[in-house]
């Protein structure tokens, strides 16, 4: 959580199109140091594209994104690599290397990118596995881990680069329901550390708990930007109201 506004991420009139199809339409958005911003919206709304633009997994069509006040629109090569080094990304699919153990998956980038020795990188990996509750899985391969465990390894891998910003793209969407809680617990703990986070999720109860702000996006446009209590109890935009009714209504049904 943050008390003063010091922008770390700034979207300035950002657009993204695929051919003639616009996906992001002129978005302006600022995220403060230590702020946890949840991005939600219906399928195909542009929310995943929005966060993928931050570390340039997707290229801008127009506009600019500033990180710590520095324009990233023209970043290429080494500059782009430096940008990505400071931004951790956790994907829907875990994207672990199947031929590497959990510890090796985590240690790889610190060795290759940061130049840590094998011993230093392994020590960092062990510390992070402990942090995500997987100390006993150091030598396990991805095929030997549950989906929730693999995603926790993926989170540890993102943290291994000691990023200033963490991006999560529907981190529980590929998990069985009984595994979602263990991943959300780790993210919840991270939210309390002061790291800046952008989280795309459909887990609305979780969003309400961890978010400093909730961004609702549809059609590539931000329709609502509000504190969680306002968004969930008194959202103003009719489209956001309909979205919440549709998403939350199953939570209020009972059955065998």
TrEMBL record:
Q: Where in the cell is it found?
A: Cell membrane
The family database entries (SUPFAM superfamilies) matched by this protein are listed as: P-loop containing nucleoside triphosphate hydrolases
User: Which EC number(s) are documented for this chain?
Assistant: 3.6.3.-
The record ties this protein, via InterPro entries, to: AAA+_ATPase, ABC_ATPase_HisP-typ, ABC_transporter-like_ATP-bd, ABC_transporter-like_CS, MetN_ABC_transporter-like, P-loop_NTPase
What highest taxon heads this organism's lineage?
Bacteria
Q: Which of UniProt's keywords are assigned here?
A: Amino-acid transport, ATP-binding, Cell membrane, Hydrolase, Membrane, Nucleotide-binding, Transport
Topology of the protein relative to the lipid bilayer: Peripheral membrane protein
Pfam families recorded: ABC_tran
* GO cellular component terms listed in the entry, alphabetical order: plasma membrane
Would you indicate the residue range of the signal peptide? none
Every copy of the ABC transporter domain together lies at: 9-244
- UniProt GO molecular function: ABC-type amino acid transporter activity; ATP binding; ATP hydrolysis activity
List the Gene3D superfamilies. P-loop containing nucleotide triphosphate hydrolases (3.40.50.300)
Primary localization: membrane
- Note the PANTHER family from the entry: AMINO ACID IMPORT ATP-BINDING PROTEIN, GLUTAMATE_ASPARTATE IMPORT ATP-BINDING PROTEIN GLTL
Give the similarity note. Answer: Belongs to the ABC transporter superfamily.
In its UniProt entry, what is this protein called? Glutamate/aspartate ABC transporter (ATP-binding protein)
- What is the gene name? gltL
């Amino acid at each position: 959580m943050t008390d003063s506004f010091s922008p770390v991420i700034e979207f300035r009139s950002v657009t993204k199109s695929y051919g003639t199809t616009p996906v992001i339409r002129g978005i302006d958005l600022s995220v403060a140091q230590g702020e946890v911003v949840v991005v939600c919206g219906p399928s195909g709304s542009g929310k995943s594209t929005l966060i993928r633009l931050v570390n340039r997994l997707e290229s801008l069509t127009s506009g600019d994104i500033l990180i710590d006040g520095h324009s990233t629109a023209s970043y290429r090569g080494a500059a782009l690599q430096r940008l990505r080094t400071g931004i951790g990304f956790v994907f829907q699919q875990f994207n672990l290397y199947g031929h590497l153990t959990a510890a090796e998956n985590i240690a790889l980038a610190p060795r290759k990118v940061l130049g840590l020795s094998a011993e230093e990188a392994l020590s960092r990996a062990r510390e992070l596995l402990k942090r995500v509750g997987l100390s006993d899985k150091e030598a396990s391969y991805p095929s030997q881990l549950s989906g929730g465990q693999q995603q926790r390894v993926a989170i540890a891998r993102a943290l291994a680069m000691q990023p200033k910003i963490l991006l999560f793209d529907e981190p529980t969407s590929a998990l069985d329901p009984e595994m979602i809680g263990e991943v959300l617990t780790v993210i919840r703990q991270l939210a309390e550390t002061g790291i800046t986070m952008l989280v795309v999720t459909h887990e609305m109860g979780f969003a309400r708990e961890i978010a400093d702000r909730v961004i609702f996006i549809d059609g590539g446009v931000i329709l609502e930007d509000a504190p969680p209590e306002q968004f969930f109890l008194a959202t103003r935009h009719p489209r956001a109201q309909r979205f919440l009714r549709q998403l939350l209504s199953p939570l209020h049904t009972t059955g065998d």
